[in-house]
């Protein structure tokens, strides 16, 4: 039997109190590579107790000492870089290079957190009234938790953990039970750092563990990344239980291409945006809105290049697109393609029933392009989260903006053009949290906040950047008179 993963509580690896496990399946080879325990409320309670006990010592640890752990964390992550990327490929199905990109981005979030001694500083003013000084202090707020998705199993936890602990809080991670191995490796590195007990804790599991985190009175705030229905549930549950919450949800990202765009560069970018990580990115391009004459050339080139992508096992270095995460995901994606076609879309490249020699049972969906997609089609409206690109037509720029803004999601949107005026209008008018101009994947770097609008985000403060400093600290005003 595959190894049963452990939780990490109070500085020790511990067995979950539950004997129920979920198999972690390599989506290309279909082997069971680990068993993820369905941790219970009692497990979460033990993690919260450890984090609460660790908090008093950790918050008194000077911030300059706290960030020394992060400098070492970064170095040790570099040493384990290839191990962690391999685990990401094995449990998630993406390619080796995509996994390397993910871990690199995660390490950049550690870099960001080393700036906390500067970012936590406050302002103040002498003589706000005669002889009275007023200052703001930012203090650690307590125990924070993150509930994270399958698609970036190493990176997303690092959006939160480094900054949370650099700010003096203690932390609990509940990763996706579909991809829990990478998180376990991150915690192996954290264990080797010799942090004080209880500063970082790991709970493996699914819904029960998530609910216990959201409802636990000992947790101050929760960061969530995942699908929109769960993001909404997390937002509602956490606010009901008096917690801070930032819940990043699903997406349907549109890319508009104007006839004046550099077509070769646009296609190259759109290819990466649509098929990178087999479309399982919250910033994946899902719909291309071709404006006017841009349509025919764009479609022809996209179909040609997508048809040439080498689909295969992510650990083979020549693979350009890996699997989707599971048999359930493959079935959902193929069903949505079928529904889109039944609703009037035309398949220009059909990736259903893809087969890869040597990996016959693997969860491959080939690159797919559907055209003549209308705004009411499921492929224009709902998140597919797979390598499926819908092509829509717009007569002009204004119609393209209307199409994009009619989406219930608002994570990202991009424009390809050589016209600065259109670029400015696009930035100004499109309702999405991340805007790309001649960039297909508008992924902010770690020092900028990341989050969407509309049904792509529930909360106030986004993840990362200065928003994360606000999220992870409590502000206090001190007014003093000494003379
Ligand atoms: P998911 O919503 O199924 O799961 C996310 C997390 O929530 C996991 O840890 C899971 O165990 C937990 N969970 C699932 N159902 C739950 C329930 N009913 N109650 C409590 N907890 C529950 O998401 P996923 O399939 O792992 O990830 C893919 C989704 O994440 C996509 O929709 C994608 O767009 C989104 N995503 C968003 C961002 C962003 O920044 N906006 C980034 C990455 C992924």
Characterize the structure shown.
It contains 16 helices and 22 strands. It has helices spanning 41-60, 63-79, 81-92, 96-113, 116-119, 155-166, 181-192, 207-215, 228-240, 263-275, 294-307, 327-342, 378-381, 397-405, 420-429, 465-471, and strands at 7-9, 12-14, 21-25, 32-37, 124-129, 132-140, 143-147, 170-174, 200-202, 221-225, 244-248, 253-257, 285-291, 346-349, 368-371, 388-394, 409-410, 412-416, 434-437, 453-454, 457-459, 473-481. β5 (124-129) and β6 form a beta hairpin. α1 (41-60) crosses α8 (207-215), α3 (81-92) crosses α4 (96-113) and α4 (96-113) packs parallel to α6 (155-166). The model has no long low-confidence stretch (mean pLDDT 98). The chain binds nicotinamide-adenine-dinucleotide.
Domains (count):
2
Radius of gyration: 23 Å
CATH hierarchy, class of the largest domain: Alpha Beta
Strand order of the largest sheet: 14-15-16-13-12-18-19
Strand content: 15-25%
Low-confidence spans: pLDDT under 50, at least 5 residues?
Answer: none
Number of continuous helical runs: 16
Relative helix content: 25-40%
Terminal residue distance: 73 Å
**CATH domain fold name of the largest domain:** Aldehyde Dehydrogenase, Chain A, domain 1
SS class: alpha/beta
The chain-level mean pLDDT equals 98
> Which descriptor suits the 3D outline?
globular
- Which kinds of small molecule does this entry bind, naming each only once? nicotinamide-adenine-dinucleotide
CATH homologous superfamily of the largest domain, by name?
Aldehyde Dehydrogenase, Chain A, domain 1
How many β strands by DSSP?
22
Provide the CATH architecture of the largest domain.
Answer: 3-Layer(aba) Sandwich
> Mind summarizing the main beta sheet?
7 strands, mixed
Task: Identify the quaternary structure here.
Answer: single chain
């Amino acid at each position: 039997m595959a190894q049963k993963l452990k939780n990490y509580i109070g500085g020790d690896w511990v067995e979950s109190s539950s004997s129920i496990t979920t198999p972690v399946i390599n989506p290309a080879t279909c082997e069971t590579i680990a068993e993820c325990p369905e941790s219970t409320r009692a497990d979460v309670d033990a993690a919260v107790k450890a984090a609460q006990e660790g908090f008093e010592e950790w918050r008194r640890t000077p911030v300059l000492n706290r960030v020394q752990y992060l400098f070492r964390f970064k170095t040790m992550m570099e040493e384990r870089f290839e191990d962690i990327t391999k685990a990401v490929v094995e449990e998630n199905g993406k390619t080796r290079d995509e996994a390397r990109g993910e871990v690199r981005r995660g390490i950049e979030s550690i870099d960001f957190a080393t700036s906390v001694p500067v970012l936590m500083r406050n302002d103040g003013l002498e003589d706000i009234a005669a002889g009275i000084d007023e200052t703001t202090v930012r203090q650690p707020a307590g125990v924070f938790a993150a509930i994270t998705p399958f698609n970036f199993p190493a990176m997303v936890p690092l959006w939160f953990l480094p900054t949370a602990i650099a700010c003096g809080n203690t932390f609990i991670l509940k990763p996706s039970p579909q991809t829990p191995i990478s998180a376990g490796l991150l915690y192996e590195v954290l264990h080797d750092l010799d942090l004080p007990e209880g500063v970082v804790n790991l709970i493996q599991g699914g819904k029960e563990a998530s609910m216990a985190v959201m409802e636990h009175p000992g947790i101050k705030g929760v960061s969530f990344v995942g699908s929109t229905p769960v993001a909404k549930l997390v937002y509602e549950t956490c606010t009901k239980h008096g917690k801070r919450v930032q819940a990043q949800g699903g997406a349907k990202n549109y890319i508009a291409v104007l006839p004046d765009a550099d077509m070769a560069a646009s296609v190259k970018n759109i290819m990466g945006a649509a098929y990178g990580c087999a479309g399982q990115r919250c910033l994946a391009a899902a719909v291309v809105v071709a404006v006017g004459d841009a349509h025919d050339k764009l479609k022809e080139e996209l179909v040609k290049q997508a048809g040439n992508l080498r689909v295969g096992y992510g650990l083979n270095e020549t693979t350009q697109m890996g699997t989707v995460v599971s048999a359930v995901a493959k079935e959902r994606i193929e069903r949505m393609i079928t529904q889109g076609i039944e609703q009037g879309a035309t398949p220009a490249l059909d990736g259903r029933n893809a087969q890869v020699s040597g990996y016959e049972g693997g969860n491959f969906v080939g690159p797919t392009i559907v055209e003549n997609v209308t705004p009411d089609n499921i492929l224009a409206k709902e998140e597919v989260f797979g390598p499926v690109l819908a092509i829509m037509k717009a007569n002009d720029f204004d119609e393209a903006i209307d199409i994009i803004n009619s989406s219930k999601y608002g994570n990202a949107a991009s424009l390809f053009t050589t016209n600065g005026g259109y670029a400015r209008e696009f930035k100004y008018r499109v309702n999405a949290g991340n805007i790309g101009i001649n960039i297909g994947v508008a992924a902010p770097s770690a020092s900028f906040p990341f989050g969407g609008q509309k049904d792509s985000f529930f909360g106030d403060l986004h993840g990362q950047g200065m928003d994360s400093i606000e999220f992870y600290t409590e502000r206090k005003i001190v007014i003093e008179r000494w003379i």
